[in-house]
Design a protein that fits this description.
The protein has one domain: Tetratricopeptide repeat domain (Serine Threonine Protein Phosphatase 5, Tetratricopeptide repeat), CATH 1.25.40. It is mostly helical.
Length: about 230
């Protein structure tokens, strides 16, 4: 579901695209790549940058997801609630509402730390006899544990998501110059026949299909990661 904004930012089968959508898509692509690499702070920065350009409700969900992952629960609740207010009929609205209830309960159950009393230093004591202190042997750090094999699967799934997202982005971006040629180049056609743009359209759709695969891989990776490290 981290690819919530994908459908809103999908390229039209037209020669031109407004600059804001192009800029937002660039931040969005960087955000999903960072999220797949578990760089949630980096993903948060990119999704927030995309939302400034295109204030779409789906970006609020992605921002909430990153805040949720970094345990910034109060801010995550605010982002989720913005998403629900803007898209109350979204297919995942019930799931997001359940997450908000859970996070609010978690926030209310956090213990309040008692105030720390000021530290009072005791007066110095002059020993009657010289005090001899034995040298303390330096602590030996425990040997580093070998990486657990259980993390191999989520790493592979996350890597596959990054690759799929990158290839999909390359496919989508590669058709933009071709569309521009059909729109205003020497080989322009207005109106164009289906056989003149069907190949470009197929490549465009292939790119979006790979984005969808990347989104599914990210969801699977998140589910596996949650089961390993709840």
């Amino acid at each position: 579901m981290i690819l919530a904004a994908l459908g809103v930012l999908s390229a039209r089968a037209m020669a031109e695209e407004d600059p804001d959508t192009e800029v937002a898509r660039g931040h969005f692509n960087l955000g999903i790549a960072s999220y797949a690499a578990r760089d949630y702070q980096g993903a948060l920065r990119e999704f927030e940058a995309a939302r400034k350009v295109k204030p779409l409700p789906a970006f609020d969900y992605n921002i909430g997801r990153c805040l949720d992952r970094t345990e910034r629960y109060a801010e995550a609740v605010e982002a989720y609630e913005r998403y629900l207010a803007a898209a109350p009929a979204a297919p995942d609205a019930a799931e997001v509402k359940e997450r908000v209830v859970l996070l609010r309960a978690r926030l209310s159950s956090r213990p309040v730390a008692p105030p720390v009393p000021p530290k009072v230093e005791p007066p110095p004591i002059t020993p009657a006899v010289p005090v001899v202190t034995a040298p303390i042997a330096p602590a030996v750090p425990p040997p580093a544990e070998a990486p657990a094999r259980r993390f191999l699967v989520p790493l592979l799934v996350g890597g596959a998501a990054v690759v799929a997202a990158g290839v999909g982005t390359a496919l989508v971006l590669s058709v933009t110059p071709e569309y521009e040629k059909l729109a205003s180049g020497p080989e322009s056609c207005r109106p164009c026949r289906p056989e003149q743009y069907s190949a470009l359209q197929a490549r465009d759709y292939a790119g979006y299909a790979l984005w969808a695969v990347a989104g599914a891989a990210v969801a699977v990776d998140a589910a596996i990661s949650s089961s390993i490290c709840p």
